[in-house]
Structures are given as structure tokens and as C-alpha cells.
Write a structure and sequence with these properties.
Layout: H1 2-24, E1 29-40, E2 43-46, E3 58-64, E4 73-80, E5 92-96, E6 106-109, E7 116-123, H2 128-138, H3 140-168, H4 177-189, H5 202-209, H6 221-227, H7 237-242, H8 254-267, E8 274-284, E9 287-292, E10 302-308, E11 321-322, E12 329-330, E13 335-341, H9 345-348, E14 352-360, E15 366-374, E16 379-383, E17 396-404, E18 407-417, E19 425-426, E20 438-442, E21 451-454, E22 460-462, E23 464-468, E24 471-475, E25 484-489, E26 497-501, E27 512-520, E28 529-531, E29 537-539, E30 543-550, E31 561-568, E32 573-577, E33 580-583, E34 588-593, H10 595-598, E35 604-613, E36 616-617, E37 621-627, E38 631-636, E39 645-651, E40 656-660, E41 669-670, E42 679-683, E43 689-694, E44 702-705
Length: 706
């Protein structure tokens, strides 16, 4: 027990120093390039396509150094066969790269029993090859572990680089790109993404996502399965410890764990003659670029660059799976997107090549379509324009297939939905659409919809989204109360569906009746009163209050507008709740207005009201006749009773059309139209009252009395 505590303490000190070294010296220094290809059973592939090696494989490797290379490098290859079993001398090979023969590199055959291959680039010096060979044979376990960790770190670095490249890619004109793409990158590459970054402004998102880069890589079963094929997962206590908060990590990242182990391990290889520098490998075709974490030294101790080739082990086929449940893919789409996850190396490397989708047609034949991984879209993209028959009637199956290194493999099977014309219909009962609302269409293949538009030909494009494999929601914009046609377009070469949308029926008109009317005239201010015989005539200076009752089965809601208008001249008054309109209850409403103020001084004639609700206008209701009255200041008659005429004085006398001493108007005086004067001769009254007729209501009348 005590010994375990001592071991843990020692590991803590060692890993703390390693953590500091890892943080202060990231792998960002470009090193030399090697050219590597592998031949397996007569088939030759560049190292970019080779995830694992097998006994009997031929490896061709040479250093791709510049022509003016001044330092002489010795290229050494070593096969390893386990931590407790030193390799024989014949498992080592060397090439003097500065010489003509050595510049051609090494041609190696993987021997039976070999498990790993390490490459060394060492500055030429006396006894260099035997020294390196003896170092490997003397501590085979350290180099076995170094090879495994270099392979793991290189694969994790490939995933990290793929993520960084996608995030850094400029996208002018697409501010939502990162928010849309980042979840797919995280799913495809098994990367830990800080979701808070996506809540920031678009111009700040990329910088936020790129923070703590070395800690972004998450544990991945397939990558681990490849590198753990020999030693088994979790056998090294240091690796486990370095991937914990106590080891200084903070949260799990296999990349950091592997890098710390490599740095700590290689520090222990230091001798008076050589120091070992680990190199991570990135590949492109047959080019194997080495990335270092410290600059090489050409003075003692000279720097030996160490890189690992893929391990020698049985092939681990990528465990591809369809990433979305109930995925729906259109069989005849110009382009299919297969959402695939489970194997990040599909996206981060070219180990998987010649990928395709094998479509199983109803007649028993198979159709092979090429597929390409697209990490930003989170799946395999299949270009199928015009290749799948358009006359499919039922769903068909298709299988993802490809080659992993040298090994063909089959992936998951997906269902493809056929695009069938004439299958879309309205999902809602009644088939009517609301203004600026949404409708749902049912019955077709949602995956096959390429566009939804309003009207014929080049109609206005509408936004839509998939709700289910056979259902979409369409957002309607603008006024389609009169009905419209929705055009649902599918793949190229297919006829669009046309779905008729009935116009929304107008809401019913609110029928109302007049209960009562009250006219309140202002207090008399002129010495001569004007008397109206009834309240059918409404003076313009009055306050009018009317009560309205809703028709049978109808009710006031508070959303009504009452319009008041006169037959001639003036404006239209609009009353609403809180502005002249009061609801007594759901059946009765009270409207109050002042004609002179609300309709203007030019309004006269038949006065009427109507109700408007939800854009629907009711019938006009007659209220009375609006008349404008003059202001009479004095009726002055001569003291001589035989004098036939009197003088009527006041303002706006043109509002009077005729004046008579009797109700029958036998001896009346007519007031000229538009009379501008302030006095006029009128007949002498029989008593104290004159009878008048109004300009605004010739059939009505009134009295002027003192």
C-alpha cells in the first residue's frame, strides 16, 4: 500500500513536469517530410490511406529533404514486437539519405510477429546506427509505448486540425454558419464544443471556439480501438492518471494524455550523445509531414526525430452508424446527405476511400453512387442527379460501402423515399388558410422537397420545414384571403405538386340595432333661443349619445370600431373602447360623440353609424339629421306695429333658408344662399316667435323666440 502511495506521488511529480512541458512546447514546429507508401497483396496505397499494417506488407519510405540540405540525416526503421521482447538485429534498417543509394530510401517487409514500426531521423555521427539500435533493444517497452502514444496523438491531432480548419474557414455573408455547423462538427469529430460560444455575436464565435484547443478532443472508441489493439486499453497507469484533474488536465482529453506521456517518456531517453524528439505525423497522399514540439539540435546531445507508422494489427472496420433517428432521404434527390457518425477518422483522415452508396433497385439490380465525407454537413454527400429512376413507387434500401485501407467494408443501410407526384395535400381540416399563418401539407416525401412557392411559375418562394417524413409546415406571407395555389417542387425532372388553398371565409358581420338616442344641447348663451321641434334634428354643437344592441347570437368583444358620418361634408369619426365607446355588457355598447368636434364644422345632413370588426363592415344605422344652427343675437322690430319688417341679427345667417311669421310659411322671407351678412330683414312675428327652415334640412324647421 505504501509503495503505491510512493508511486502515485512520483507520478504526480513526473506528470506535473510533463504537463508544464506540454503546455510550454506545443507541437507547432514544421519538421522534415517523409514519402511513404504501402503495398498489400499487390495493391499499393499512399500512407494517407493506410490505417493499419499487416505481416508481409511492403513499406517504401524515403526522406523528402530539400536539395540544399546541409545536415546529413540517417533514416532508420525499426520493427517492434512487444515491451518485453527486444527485436532482432535484422528488424532494423538504415539509409544514408545524403548518398545516392540512401536517397532512394528503404524498402521494408513487415515480418511475422512485428507489432509496430518506428522511424528515426538522426544526424549522422560515428556509431549512430548501432547506438540507436542498442537503445531500442535495451528499452523495447519504452519505444513500444512511445510508438503507441505517437500514433494516438497523431490521430487525435488530425481530428483537432480538421475541426480548427472548418471553424477558421471564412464565410462572408453567412453569419449563422458556425451556429449551424458546430454541432455537426462536434458530432462527426467527437469534439468538445463550448456551447456558450454560440450565444456570442457571430464575429466573436470563432475565436471563442478555438480556445483551449488541446482539450477539445474527446475519447473516441474507434480511434482508441486502433491504437489499443496491441497493448489493450488503459494498461498504463501514467496515461490514466494524466487524463484526470489530479494530473492537471481539468477534463478528459486523450490528446493531452498522449502528448504528456510522450514528452515525459522521451525526456527519459536523454543520453550524452542523443536526445529524442517526438514527431506527430500528418499525411497527404504519400507525404508524411512531421510536426515537432522543439527545435532539433545538431550538437551533442544531437536530436533524433522519432515518428510512428500505423500499428501492425487486424483491421478495425469503422463502426459507422446513422446519426439521426427516423432519417428520411429522397431517392431521386440531386444530392443526398447521409448523416453518419461513430467514426471520426472517416472525416479527419483518408483511411476510408472509394466510399459509395449501393442502391438496391426493385428489379434486383444494384446502382453504385459515389459518396464523399463532408464534416461541415455532418455526413456523406452522394451526388445522384438523374441516376435513380423517377418511376419508383415504394421505398427502397441502400447500403453504405467503401474501403478502409485495403479492406472493403459495408456500413449501415438506409431507406430511400421515392418522390411521387400528386401526393401532397392539406393536412388541416377545411383547407383554409389564415392571413400570415401557417399550413401543413401531408402525404408526400418531405426529403424530396426542394422548394415551396406561392402561385404558378416563378412565384414567391415560401419558407418551410420538415415535421415528419411525410409532413411539412409552410409559412404563408401576405394576404391570401382570396385563395391561392401552393407549388411544391421536388427533384430535377419531377413534376411539381400543386395544392389549392381556399381563401379564409370572412368573419360574420356584427349586426346591431339602435336602442336609444340622447341629444344634449349646450346651455344657451345667445339672448335669442332656437327651438327644435323634435330630436330627429341633431344640432352640430350638441353632445350625442347612442346605445347599440348586438344581434341575436352575437356579442361585443371590445375589438369593435364605431364609425359616425354625415350625409354631406365633414370627416368620419371613429370611436373605439376608451375613445368614445363604452361596453355596458357583451350585448350593449354606448357611443358618445360631438358632431362639431368629431365630424368638423362642414358636416351636415343625414347622420348615421356603423360597426366594424376584424375588417368586416356592418350596415349603416340612421341616427337623425345633423343641422348647423346660426347664433341669433337680436330680433329688433319697429315700435310702429304697422311696420311690416323686423331686423334679425346674428352670425352664420346663411344656415337659415327661410323665415316666416306663421307655421305654414304663407308670408316667408327667403335667405339668399351663402348670405354673408350679420343682419337681415324678416317678417314681423305675430307674437314673439318666428318660424324658420334650415339650409341643412329644408324639410325640417325650428323656431326663433325671445
Amino acid at each position: 500500500m505504501r509503495s503505491l502511495r510512493y508511486l502515485a506521488a512520483a507520478l504526480t511529480c513526473t506528470l506535473s513536469a510533463a504537463a508544464h512541458a506540454a503546455e510550454s512546447a506545443p507541437f507547432d514546429l514544421v519538421g522534415p517530410t517523409l514519402r511513404v507508401s504501402v503495398t498489400h497483396q499487390g495493391q499499393r496505397l499512399p500512407i494517407d490511406n493506410v490505417p493499419q499494417l499487416a505481416a508481409g506488407d511492403q513499406i517504401d519510405v524515403r526522406a523528402d529533404l530539400p536539395e540544399d540540405q546541409s545536415a546529413h540525416y540517417l533514416l532508420i526503421a525499426a520493427f517492434l514486437r512487444g515491451s518485453t521482447n527486444p527485436p532482432p538485429d535484422k528488424w532494423f534498417a538504415q539509409a544514408e539519405t545524403w548518398k545516392k543509394k540512401g536517397s532512394k530510401g528503404l524498402s521494408l517487409t513487415v515480418p511475422e510477429g512485428a507489432q509496430q514500426v518506428m522511424l528515426f531521423l538522426a544526424p549522422a555521427t560515428g556509431g549512430d546506427f548501432p547506438t540507436l539500435r542498442n537503445a531500442v533493444k535495451g528499452r523495447p517497452g519504452a519505444f513500444v509505448r512511445a510508438a503507441q502514444d505517437l500514433a494516438q496523438a497523431s490521430l487525435d491531432r488530425r481530428r483537432l486540425d480538421t475541426f480548427l480548419a472548418a471553424v477558421r474557414k471564412p464565410a462572408p455573408g453567412d453569419p449563422d454558419r458556425l451556429e449551424r455547423m458546430t454541432p455537426l462538427l462536434a458530432r462527426s469529430l467527437q469534439i468538445k464544443v463550448n456551447a456558450d460560444c454560440l450565444t456570442k455575436a457571430p464575429e466573436l464565435q470563432a475565436a471563442c471556439l478555438l480556445q483551449n484547443q488541446d482539450s477539445l478532443v474527446l475519447n473516441d472508441g474507434h480511434t482508441n480501438e486502433i491504437t489499443d489493439a496491441l497493448a489493450g486499453p488503459g494498461v498504463d497507469l501514467a496515461l490514466q492518471f494524466s487524463a484526470t484533474p489530479q494530473g492537471g488536465l481539468g477534463y478528459y482529453s486523450p490528446y493531452i494524455g498522449a502528448v504528456r506521456d510522450i514528452i515525459g517518456m522521451f525526456a527519459s531517453f536523454h543520453t550524452a550523445k542523443y536526445q529524442y524528439i517526438p514527431a506527430l505525423a500528418t499525411t497527404d497522399g504519400d507525404r508524411m509531414m512531421l510536426i515537432l514540439n522543439s527545435a532539433p539540435s545538431f550538437r551533442n546531445p544531437k536530436s533524433v526525430l522519432v515518428a510512428a507508422l500505423p500499428i501492425v494489427a487486424p483491421v478495425r472496420i469503422p463502426p459507422l452508424e446513422i446519426a439521426e433517428r427516423d432519417v428520411s432521404i429522397c431517392a431521386q434527390a440531386d444530392e443526398m446527405l447521409l448523416p453518419v457518425s461513430g467514426a471520426p477518422l472517416i472525416y479527419a483522415t483518408r483511411y476510408a476511400h472509394d466510399l459509395g452508396l449501393r442502391v438496391h433497385l426493385p428489379d434486383g439490380h444494384d446502382l453504385d453512387l459515389a459518396a464523399q465525407p463532408d464534416v461541415e454537413r455532418g455526413g456523406l454527400v452522394v451526388q445522384s442527379r438523374g441516376k435513380v429512376p423517377m418511376d419508383l413507387k415504394t421505398p427502397i434500401k441502400a447500403t453504405i460501402h467503401g474501403i478502409w485501407g485495403f479492406q472493403p467494408f459495408d456500413g449501415p443501410t438506409v431507406n430511400l423515399q421515392p418522390a411521387q407526384a400528386g401526393t401532397w395535400r392539406l393536412a388541416a381540416d377545411g383547407g383554409s388558410a389564415k392571413r400570415d399563418g401557417k399550413i401543413e401539407l401531408l402525404g408526400g416525401a418531405a426529403a424530396c422537397v426542394s422548394q415551396v412557392s406561392l402561385g404558378e411559375g416563378d412565384g414567391r418562394e415560401l419558407s418551410w420545414k420538415r415535421l415528419a417524413p411525410d409532413r411539412i409546415s409552410v409559412a404563408l406571407t401576405g394576404d391570401i384571403s382570396g385563395g391561392a395555389t401552393i407549388r411544391v417542387s421536388g427533384p430535377s425532372g419531377s413534376a411539381p405538386d400543386k395544392v389549392a388553398i381556399a381563401g379564409a371565409p370572412p368573419p360574420p358581420r356584427l349586426a346591431v340595432s339602435l336602442i336609444a338616442r340622447h341629444v344634449e344641447r349646450p346651455s344657451a348663451v345667445a339672448p335669442v333661443r332656437i327651438i327644435l321641434p323634435d330630436d330627429e334634428q341633431i344640432p352640430s354643437d350638441a353632445t350625442v349619445r347612442i346605445s347599440l344592441r348586438a344581434g341575436a347570437g352575437m356579442r361585443f368583444t371590445g375589438g369593435e370600431t364605431i364609425e359616425i358620418a354625415a350625409g354631406s361634408g365633414g370627416e368620419v369619426a371613429r370611436l373605439s373602447v376608451g375613445k368614445g365607446l363604452l361596453l355596458a355588457d357583451a350585448q350593449v355598447a354606448i357611443a358618445t360623440f360631438q358632431p362639431a368636434t368629431d365630424l368638423g364644422t362642414s358636416a351636415f345632413g343625414p347622420l348615421r353609424a356603423r360597426v366594424i370588426r376584424d375588417g368586416v363592415t356592418g350596415d349603416w344605422l340612421p341616427i337623425g339629421t345633423l343641422v348647423r344652427l346660426p347664433t341669433i343675437r337680436q330680433l329688433r322690430c319697429p315700435e310702429d306695429a304697422s311696420a311690416p319688417a323686423c331686423e334679425l341679427m346674428g352670425d352664420n345667417l346663411f344656415l337659415i333658408s327661410a323665415v316666416s311669421p306663421t307655421p305654414a310659411f304663407e308670408k316667408s322671407a327667403t335667405i339668399p344662399d351663402g348670405y354673408p351678412g350679420n343682419s337681415i330683414q324678416v317678417p314681423r312675428p305675430a307674437g314673439k316667435t318666428l318660424y324658420v327652415r334650415w339650409h341643412d334640412n329644408p324639410q325640417g324647421g325650428g323656431q326663433i323666440g325671445q
